[in-house]
Amino acid sequence: MPRFTNPVPQYLDSAGNPLPGGKVYFYETTTTTPKDTFSDEAESVANANPVILDAEGRCGNIWYTGVARVILQTSSGVEVYDRDPVGSAASTSSMAAYNAGTTYSADDTVLATDGNFYISLAGSNLNNEPSASPTVWSELATIRVWNTNETYADLEVVRGSDGNLYRSTTGTNLANDPTTDNQNWLMAIDDSRILSDLNGTLTSGGSSNAYTLTPDRYAGAYAAGMMYRFKANHSNTGACTLNVAGLGAKALQSSTAAAMVSGNIKSGRYYTAFYTGVYFVLTADLSPGEFERQPVAYLDFTLNGTATPTINKSLGATVIMDIANGTITVTLGTALAAADDAFIDMCGAWLGVFTFSIPVVPTFRATSTTLITGLAYLTPSNTAALTDARIWLKVYDYS
């Protein structure tokens, strides 16, 4: 509640005598810029500046906002006093407009002149304009609930009706429900739309060699770096294209820019498409359950300097070694079907006098025979070390 103050003050000189015709000047605090005062609380009827005292040294009502610098003079212009600031030092309600004459405590919240809320970082916080005083005020972000009648600015964040936070992607965002509009809004924290475009929940459309894809994210134009993971809805029969979000068909090619051939894309398999800026690079993923698939061929053998290395362990395969060319040919027990994907995983090490590493060379191959040829190994300058080399090799069939 407000404290009682004298509603009809009488102004006195330094000797304690009334100041008939005295002058009371009002300025903006710390300046000589005149400050408006009013005779009514609504601040609609302005006073003169200075306010002239009557014959008893009294004046009418004086109202103003905030604080002011007040100078009292005699009728002849002799200064009696100069006080600054003069105004209310009482606390205000939470989130009220900032008042330069109010002393704020730590954690008090105000609405500054820039339209943003600020929280006080210190006690005894007086005459520090929040937007210009970061050492004692910190801007307080507020999140509004989306309202179809409000126009939102770019990057502004709101809470949708589903409880998630959304970030505006346009500067004039009006009447676009963020829970259903993925063109003008993105989820502000963890965008599930991005995840669904990458985690394999998408399924391609289209037919023949023309694939289509409808992503969850809004796509207004193709851009290098776009990536989508999807399940193929049909197999291809030749060179093919991918049309994302109706933006136009782009070629689907291998990492070496080769066009797809018949059977490269199989219905029900998962693929990842990466846009280079010109075409989509397509890579095949392992289908569910294929991580545990057993190899169709497994060999563990020791090179012995002859064309028929010593087989330590074998699963449906044999191996022939070409000493002159430094290559190995594997004969599978069962032929791979035409255009099936054979994943070859090879590794080994030279032991003994010379030590070399044989790198892992994972390669997708297509064949309709039992032969997998051209598996090169390192040949040391001392051919005697060929008797000390041991290699293992696995072949998986991902048809």
Q: Give start-end ranges of low-pLDDT stretches.
A: 349-368, 378-385
How many strands, which pairing sense, and closed or not: the largest β-sheet? 8 strands, mixed
User: β content, as a range?
Assistant: 35-45%
Structural class: mainly beta
Whole-number tally of structural domains: 5
Number of helical stretches of at least 4 residues: 1
Count of extended strands: 33
The N- to C-terminal Cα distance equals: 83 Å
**Arrangement of strands in the largest sheet:** 17-20-23-24-22-21-19-18
Mean pLDDT: 79
User: Which percent bin holds the helix content?
Assistant: under 10%
Describe it.
The chain has 399 residues and is mainly beta. The chain contains one helix and 33 strands. It has five domains: 23-87, Phage P22 tailspike-like, N-terminal domain (Tailspike Protein, Chain), CATH 2.170.14.10; 96-140, Seminal Fluid Protein  PDC-109 (Domain B) (Ribbon); 144-190, Seminal Fluid Protein  PDC-109 (Domain B) (Ribbon); 213-284, no CATH class; 292-397. The protein has one helix spanning 192-198, and strands at 23-28, 51-52, 67-73, 79-87, 96-97, 103-104, 109-111, 117-120, 125-126, 137-140, 144-145, 151-152, 157-159, 165-168, 173-174, 185-187, 202-203, 205-207, 210-213, 227-231, 240-244, 249-253, 270-275, 280-284, 297-302, 310-315, 317-322, 327-332, 342-350, 357-358, 363-365, 371-376, 389-397. The strands form eight sheets. It has an eight-stranded mixed sheet. Strands 25, 26, 29, 30, 31 and 33 form a six-stranded antiparallel sheet that branches. Strands 2-1-3-4 form a four-stranded antiparallel sheet, with no helix packed on it.
